TrEMBL record, chains A, B:
It comes from Hucho hucho (huchen). It comes from the Eukaryota. It is a peripheral membrane protein; Lipid-anchor. The modification N6-(pyridoxal phosphate)lysine is found at K324. This is Glutamate decarboxylase 2.
Amino acid sequence: SPARAWCQAAAQKLPGGIGSKLCDLLPALDGDMKTMTFLQEVVDILLAYITESFDRETKVIDFHYPNELLQRNNWELQDEPETLDDILISCRATLKYAIKTAHPRYFNQLSTGLDMVGLAADWLTSTANTNMFTYEVAPVFVLLEYVTLKKMREIIGWEDGRGDGIFSPGGAISNMYAMLLARFKMFPEVKEKGMSSVPRLAAFTSEHSHFSIKKGAAALGIGTESVICIKADESGKMIPADLERKILEAKQKGFVPFFVSATAGTTVYGAFDPLIAISDICKKYQVWFHVDGAWGGSLIMSRMHKWKLDGVERANSVTWNPHKMMAVPLQCSALLVREEGLMQNCNQMHACYLFQQDKHYDLSYDTGDKALQCGRHVDIFKLWLMWRAKGTIGFEAQIDKCLELSEYLYNKIKDREGYEMVFNGKPQHTNVCFWYLPPGIRYLEDKEEKKKRLHKVAPVIKARMMEYGTTMVSYQPQGDKVNFFRMVISNPAATFEDIDFLIEEIERLGQDL
Amino acid sequence: SPARAWCQAAAQKLPGGIGSKLCDLLPALDGDMKTMTFLQEVVDILLAYITESFDRETKVIDFHYPNELLQRNNWELQDEPETLDDILISCRATLKYAIKTAHPRYFNQLSTGLDMVGLAADWLTSTANTNMFTYEVAPVFVLLEYVTLKKMREIIGWEDGRGDGIFSPGGAISNMYAMLLARFKMFPEVKEKGMSSVPRLAAFTSEHSHFSIKKGAAALGIGTESVICIKADESGKMIPADLERKILEAKQKGFVPFFVSATAGTTVYGAFDPLIAISDICKKYQVWFHVDGAWGGSLIMSRMHKWKLDGVERANSVTWNPHKMMAVPLQCSALLVREEGLMQNCNQMHACYLFQQDKHYDLSYDTGDKALQCGRHVDIFKLWLMWRAKGTIGFEAQIDKCLELSEYLYNKIKDREGYEMVFNGKPQHTNVCFWYLPPGIRYLEDKEEKKKRLHKVAPVIKARMMEYGTTMVSYQPQGDKVNFFRMVISNPAATFEDIDFLIEEIERLGQDL
C-alpha cells in the first residue's frame, strides 16, 4: 500500500528515530512521512501488546498501589512539549501497567476479551472521528445504526424489525432512557411541566437488579424510594406474585405504577426473570414493561439458550449490551424501543443549528434529536463489522462456548471438597457464584465464627491474585451472604484449561487462610 | 519490532492474501500471524485515508442520498460469516463514503480536525479495552484522569486545583450533571424522595445557550418550562440585568431559583456571557453558578484570549470539551466541580459487586460511583497524551491560530460587497456569522421578498457544496433572522488560503441564486 511504502521510505531516511517536534506531523506540509512512521511505531507497540495479552505466560496485571504507580512514572502535564520518542515511552508505560482485559484468565468483569475485527473497527472509528447527530456528518454510520438496530429488533421478535432505538453510552444510560420514555408515554406533559405535573410514580424491579435503575430514578427526579424492590427467589429470579402484590400496594398508597424493569441476566447470579409472567402483570396494570438485558440479552442469539428470554418480544423496551456477552469492544449498548417516534417526541428540542428542516436529504436520518446527548460517539461500527465477520452463527458459537465453559466450572466444583455454591442448580448464564473454604475454615463448628472468617477469604485471595498477576475474578457479599466469588465468562479466548487453572490458583492462594 | 517481523513473515507465507476464516485470528493457537497481517492491512487502509484527508485535492465528502447510499453497497447483516477480504472491502467502502472530518476545508461542526497523537492515543485506548469504573480495572487511566482533572481545575483558577470532576459522554451530559448537582446541593432529599419533596425549581440560561440545558431539565423531571430564558444582547451575550429581573420574577411566582448556566462560547455566535456580573447575581441569590464552556472553555489555555472567561473561577461547575477547540478526538468532555464529595453523594448507589469496601487499595480511586453511567468509556488518554506531546503552549498556539483565522475571515468579508454580518463587531470566538447575498438578491427593494429569497440561499449553497464535495460549512436561522452561514474554525490544518477558498466557493456556488 502507498502508506506502507511511505512509511518504509521514511524509516530508511530517519535511522536516528523519530524524535522530532510535533509540528512535523500532519497537517504540516511534509508531515505525512513522519506521521506514518510515528503511527506505525504506535501500531507496532499495540500489535506486540495484543500478542502478549493472549499469551498465558504473561501476567494479567502488573499491579501497583495508586501512590506507588503515581511515582513509578512521570505522569504530569507540563507547559512544554515532549518529543515523539517520549510519547512512545508513555504509550509503553501506559500499557505496561494496564490490565490485560484480553487475557484468557481475566474473568473480572462482564466485558472481557478483545475481538480482532472489533478492534480494527474501533481503530477505523477513531480515524473517521465523527459524531452521530446527523446524516450529514456521519452518513455511513447512521445507516449502519439503522440496519443494525432493525436486525436486533427482528431478533427480539418485533414484526419486520419495526420500532426504534439508539446506541447509548452504556447500559445504565440505556435503562435511564427506558424509564424516561415510560414516564413520558404516560404523562407527556412532564417534558414541559416537570414532575410537579405528575402524580407520585412507582417503578418496580427485583432486589437482584442492577443499581442503574435506582440511579436513573434519582437522576430523573423520581427518587430512589419510588423504586420498589421485588423479591427474588433463591436463584435470583423475580417472583411475579410479589410484583403484583407490590403494584397493588403502591396503587393503594396513591402511587402510579409506570415502569417495571425485568432483568434478563442479573449482574451477580446471572438470573433471568420470568418475562412472560411479568409481562402479563404489566399488561394487566398497563405498566411499561422494560427488559434489562444488558448482560443476558445476547443469549437471544443462541438457539440453545434463547428460551431464557421467552417473552422479551412483549417488552416496550429492551437494553442489550453487545459489549458484554458478544465481546464487542467497549462501549456498545443498545436501547430498543417498540413504539416508533416516542424517543423523538420525548427528547427533541429542535436545535436549529443542527437539525435544519430545509436540508436536501431525508431528515428521518438525522437521529440526533432523539438522544439525551448532543454529540454522540460512533459505537455502531465495531458491532456491525464483527457481525459481518462472524455472522449471526459466529456470535451464537461464541456465546454457546462461554456457557459451556461455565457449565464445566459448575460441574467441577459443585461437589468438590472445600466449595459451596451460593445458589443451587445449574446457572442460567455464565455466572458461577461460590465460596471457597480453605481447610482451616472448612471444619469449623462455630457457624458465626466460620462466616466471619469466610467473609475475609475472597478479598485476600483476590488481592494475592492481583499481586501475582495470574488471574482476576470478582467477589462480593450479597444480602446476608458473606463474600463469595462471582465467576463470569465472556472472553472467547478462555478454555477448559483456564477454568482448571482458576480453581488451582484459588486453592494455591487460599490454602493457608 | 517483533510484531512487524511476524507480519512480514506472515505476508510471505500467505501470498494468496488473508481470506481465511475468522477462527484463525487471535485467540486461536496460531492466530497471531494472521491477526497481525489483518490488523496491518486495516492500518494501511487507515494511513492512506489519513494522508488523503489532509490533501486539499481530495473531496471532503463523496455525498449520496440515504436511499442511494443504502443501495451502493451491501450493508446487510447475515447469518454466515464473511471472509477477511470482504471485511477489508467493507472498511474501504465505509471510509469512501465517510466525511473527511480532518480535511482542512471541513468547517461544518465545532469538532473538526484529526490530531495524530490524539489518534494514536485513541487506538491505544481501544486496544486496552477497559472501563473507568474502578482502579482495579483501569489503574493508569484512573490516575491520568485524576492528574488531568486537577490540571484543568488549576487552569480554571481553583486553589491548588482542588475540587472534583469527571469525563462524561459529551457536553450535554456534562451540563445535565451540573444541573443534577445543583439540585442535590440545595435539596439533598430529592435523591430519595424525588421532585415531589422539592418546591418548583427555576433554572436560568440565555436565549442563545445550548439546547442541552432544556433537554437536561426535561430529563431530570424539572421540565422545560422551568428553564427561564434570559435575554441576550445583539452580540449574543446574556444581559445580567435581565437575569436578575427574571430571578426576582420567578421568586415572586413561588419558584426557587437553583441554577444559572452562563455560556462561555455560544454555539452559534460564539458569545461569552459576562461571567463576573452573572456570578455576582448568583452569589446574591445563592444560586448555583454553572459555566457551559463546552465550546469556549478552551480559550482559557490562551494568554491572549483567556480574559473572555474572567470570572469562571467563581463557578460552582464548568463544562469544558477538549474535543472541540482543543481538537482532541471525539469524545472528550469534562465537567469540573468546585465542591469535593458532592458528585459522590449525589450519584452513589454502593453497588457491592463493583465497589467492594474491603479491597486492598485506596478506594478513593474507585471513581465509578460518582457517575450516572456504570461502565464508562476511557476518554482521558487521548487528551493526556496530546497534552504531553504539545504542552500547554502547544494547545495555546493551536487555539490562537484558529482565532487568527476567524479574524482574517471577519476582516475579509465585513465590508465586502454581497456580505452582511449577522451581528456587529469582531467575533469573540471563531464563529463568524454572515449572509451571502447573490447579485440577484443584493439589490432587491422589497424587504420581505429579499428576506424570503435570502432564506433559501444558504441551504442551496450548502447542498451544492456537499454535492461537489469541496467544503462544508453550517447554516441556520435564528429568531427572526433568516438562514445565515455560521463559520467556525477548530481544525489546526486550516490556513488563510482555505478561508479564501471558502469565500470563493460560496460565491461560485451562489452567484446564480
